[in-house]
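Hello,

Following up on my earlier ticket. Below are the two sequence lines again, exactly as submitted.
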Amino acid sequence: EAGVTQFPSHSVIEKGQTVTLRCDPISGHDNLYWYRRVMGKEIKFLLHFVKESKQDESGMPNNRFLAERTGGTYSTLKVQPAELEDSGVYFCASSQMGYEQFFGPGTRLTVL
Amino acid sequence: AQRVTQPEKLLSVFKGAPVELKCNYSYSGSPELFWYVQYSRQRLQLLLRHISRESIKGFTADLNKGETSFHLKKPFAQEEDSAMYYCALRAGSYQLTFGKGTKLSVIP
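Thanks for your patience. The regenerated structure is below:
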């Protein structure tokens, strides 16, 4: 069974540019989560989708971040415009109901 | 708000020695506690959860509500245990709250 996949694995952009990260969950998993680890800090929750609906977006840092999950399958996380402090590793996870969350390999974002 | 503290950034032990990775949490209710592990060049994966009360790869963790701790233990460390270990809490919703992680290095 394929696990959670994320694209790209690395992204280097300049401040002010736009970046879109993609996550493909495990097939059949209605729950999809985004987390972020900024250098030196803990992995922090960003938001949670149930199918195509945002269940909880309490962790989204500001309105420069926009997450979508059209059709309840893959999800995208867009950062526009990117700032230096957005650099970090962005993880996606998926689960069935409240069961184990399976994590993707992460996308390392560097904003110069 | 809930919080997870892992006081050790790095823990080095010799192969065959006992290991204890510390985790303390703050939450007023009854949380679910987890240990996640990330081996080199691999993704984050669940190691164990307190409600299952099982031993995985020789590791165990007991939830101590009085001390609000969920320390991870293994009696005899192996080289393949070297990895980043994250303690995490889930309380009242699906989101996980993570500690900063402890890097375990097992010296041959």
